[in-house]
């Protein structure tokens, strides 16, 4: 059973604080993703990673950075939190087929989410 | 980049009726289209997916259809039950370039008993 965990379910921070959100998966997945979920906007991709120490910007990377030092762990960093970063943050992971083709193993498995409030 | 539009944003049906949710995508190279269901307070979970070499796929009461020419795909739920009430997200991705999923904005389905 795939397990994706996130460090906190709820987090309250103050404007200007540096915030770390951590995600861990136990399925040896190559791919890991960070999304934010806001009402009416769906899931928007912030950053993703195909391998250790590798990262790529998603659709809304501004104000965020990421770190992937180990395969099972993908961290999202808010360098200086702002109120417009109040949101639900979801981490996901998936397998990467060696031949590069999309398959059902591309299923993304999501973590439980972290609801971040920035005051 | 890819853009996925999803309609309607909310859908209310009576138990036993059918529900249809529609999505359109912009990148003709997209070839993988999953649907995720998110129950209140829970994480999104894959319920069905389809690849571009198939026009329709069915799994019990759930089916997905794909029209590559028109670049749209739909989720069909028959004989709806109260436990089908959730937010449904469509998504699209492709084999090359950026392979990350692009999600639609979601549809809140409410099944009235």
Description:
The complex is a heterodimer of chains A (119) and B (113). Chain A is mostly beta strands and 119 residues long. Chain A contains no helices and 11 strands. Helices cover 0% and strands 50% of the residues of chain A. Chain A starts with a strand and ends with a strand. Chain B has strands at 4-7, 10-14, 19-25, 32-38, 45-51, 56-59, 62-67, 72-77, 86-92, 102-103, 107-112. In chain B, strand 6 and strand 7 form a beta hairpin. Classes of the chains: A mainly beta (119), B mainly beta (113). At the A-B interface, strand 4 and strand 5 of A face strand 5 and strand 10 of B.
Secondary structure elements and pairings:
The complex is a heterodimer of chains A (119) and B (113).
Chain A: E1 4-6, E2 10-13, E3 19-25, E4 31-38, E5 42-49, E6 56-57, E7 64-70, E8 73-78, E9 87-94, E10 109-110, E11 114-118
Chain B: E1 4-7, E2 10-14, E3 19-25, E4 32-38, E5 45-51, E6 56-59, E7 62-67, E8 72-77, E9 86-92, E10 102-103, E11 107-112
Parallel strand pairs in B: 2-11
Antiparallel strand pairs in B: 1-3, 3-8, 4-5, 4-9, 6-7, 7-8, 9-10, 9-11
**Mean pLDDT over all positions of chain A:** 90
Radius of gyration of chain A: 14 Å
Which geometry of chain A do the CA atoms define? globular
Low-confidence stretches of chain A: none
Distance separating the two termini of chain A:
37 Å
* Greatest contact between two chains: A-B, 25 and 27 residues
The number of distinct β-strands of chain B equals 11
Helical amount of chain B: under 10%
Strand content of chain B: over 45%
Question: What are the salient characteristics of this protein?
Answer:
heterodimer; A: 119 residues; mainly beta; seven-stranded mixed beta sheet; four-stranded antiparallel beta sheet; 50% strand; globular; B: 113 residues; six-stranded mixed beta sheet; five-stranded antiparallel beta sheet
């Amino acid at each position: 059973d795939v397990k994706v965990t996130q460090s906190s379910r709820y987090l309250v921070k103050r404007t200007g604080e540096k915030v770390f959100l951590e995600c861990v998966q136990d399925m040896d997945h190559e791919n890991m993703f960070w999304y934010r979920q806001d009402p009416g906007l769906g899931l928007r991709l912030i950053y993703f990673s195909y391998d250790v120490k590798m990262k790529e910007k998603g659709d809304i990377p501004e104000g965020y950075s990421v770190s992937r030092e180990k395969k099972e762990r993908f961290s999202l960093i808010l360098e200086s939190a702002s109120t417009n970063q109040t949101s639900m943050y979801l981490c996901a992971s998936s397998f990467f087929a060696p031949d590069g083709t999309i398959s059902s193993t591309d299923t993304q498995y999501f973590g439980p989410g972290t609801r971040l409030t920035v005051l | 980049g890819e853009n996925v539009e999803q309609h309607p944003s909310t859908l209310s049906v009576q138990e036993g009726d059918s529900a249809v949710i529609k999505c359109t995508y912009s990148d003709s190279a997209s070839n993988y289209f999953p649907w995720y269901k998110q129950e209140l307070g829970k994480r999104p979970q894959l319920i069905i997916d389809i690849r571009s070499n198939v026009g329709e796929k069915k799994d019990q009461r759930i089916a997905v259809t794909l029209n590559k020419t028109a670049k749209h795909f739909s989720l069909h739920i028959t004989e709806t039950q109260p436990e089908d009430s959730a937010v449904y997200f469509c998504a699209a991705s492709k084999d090359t370039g950026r392979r990350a999923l692009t999600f639609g904005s979601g549809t809140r389905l409410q099944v009235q008993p």
